[in-house]
What does this fold into?
Amino acid sequence: MSEPVEEIEIQLLLDALYRHYHYDFRHYARASIKRRLLQAQKQLGFDSISALQSAVLHDETMLPNLLNYLTVQVSEMFRDPSYFRALREKVIPHLRTYPSLKVWVAGCSHGEELYSLAILFREEGLAEKTIFYATDINPAALKAAKAGVYSLDRVRLFTENYQQSGGQCSLSEYYTADYGRAVFDQSLRARTVFSDHSLVTDAAFGEMHLISCRNVLIYFDRELQDRVVGLFAESLARRGFLGIGSKESLRFSAQADRFSEFVREERIYRRKSR
Amino acid sequence: MTQGLVAIGASAGGVQALSHILPDLPADYPLPVVVVVHIPPRKDNALVALFDRKCRMRVKEAEDKEPLTSGTVYFAPPDYHLLVEAEGALALSTEEPVNHSRPAIDVLFESAADAYGAALTGIVLTGANNDGAAGLQAICAAGGTAIVQNPDEAEVAAMPVAAADACRGALVMTLDEIAAHLAKTVTQ
Ligand SMILES: C[S@@+](CC[C@H](N)C(=O)[O-])C[C@H]1O[C@@H](n2cnc3c(N)ncnc32)[C@H](O)[C@@H]1O
It folds into this structure.
């Protein structure tokens, strides 16, 4: 049987996005990409994936729209509280020993993970000596991350998570409520560099002490996961830490032997010195 | 890639229904079995421990990019969608809930239908919503075997009824018949 037309169209659209805009989704986990492309086609009102492809090639104002489908922006502050508790209790004591720190939040979405870490580092007295790098490929997400504004009904969940993560104050000390929105304190991101960086097509960052990249690897196929885990190994200082999502693991990765498990249940790894 | 796949979706009353079907399958069952049960997002996955005790097949929580192997039952982790990739591996995703559920049965069934086509058996068990209906339709369209639990014996009939409506070619079976149907695969 010949390949289904839809699969051909999807491959062509991904090739076109790469060749024209340099956005490379070709090695994303295909089943999920297909779902989201079909959703985009339907909701944006196209008869076929080819029609969607034509529109996005000829009209670059379509691109942000499509990116919002191709990237998944679901996040929470202090998502999986036990991860942040493990950082606080097990990783921070090691980080404390360095004179200055670099932390990379890769795939930062709307900033939920970044602000969680910024709050954690402030409470542990490390904020002043830390530079955060927050990166994503979706410009709209980066813009939202800089703003740090979330609807108050989400903040209820964030607060619950924060408390379970071992938070020392009340989350409300870090934001002001305003017309149904929580505006997070801008001083939290005073030492953050936001940048448009793709884990797929861009180079390594230097000498990070902690990389937190949660729920991004699951969107990649195995080959791309290997590349990105290799990029993390290159971007980490010796004995630097890598935290990934609670249902992600390095177990199936060809790069696994460059890391040792540090907190196994929380998927926190440490780069081997050699 | 395994020669076939069984995908099962269940919601309210699902644990009991699955307890009728899964424990009888032999340890060397020739296919993998992938299961989505609607569970509250912040619960530990107690299903794996429960069914590991009851079943002869190996039972585990599905992991991202894990290759499917025969003789194994995979449960979707709470708060993640579970998908099947074309090369016969599992994938997880935190995309928005579908039919108010994450994991959603439709997401599993639609991706599994793409990957396995006619070699897929999809089963919709008891439940109070209509998740699984669109997915079962996709399974039929791809030439797979579609089965719904007989609504008369289902603890909650809504889900199998919706699935049978969406997928006219679906076989309607009692739990005993489903168990017998799956067991037949062993002798084939
Ligand atoms: C599901 S969100 C994860 C948000 C947060 N890290 C968390 O765990 O809650 C995935 C993020 O990865 C970003 N992303 C996808 N592909 C990427 C790439 N190639 N490089 C960097 N970020 C990427 C998406 O834009 C999205 O913001």
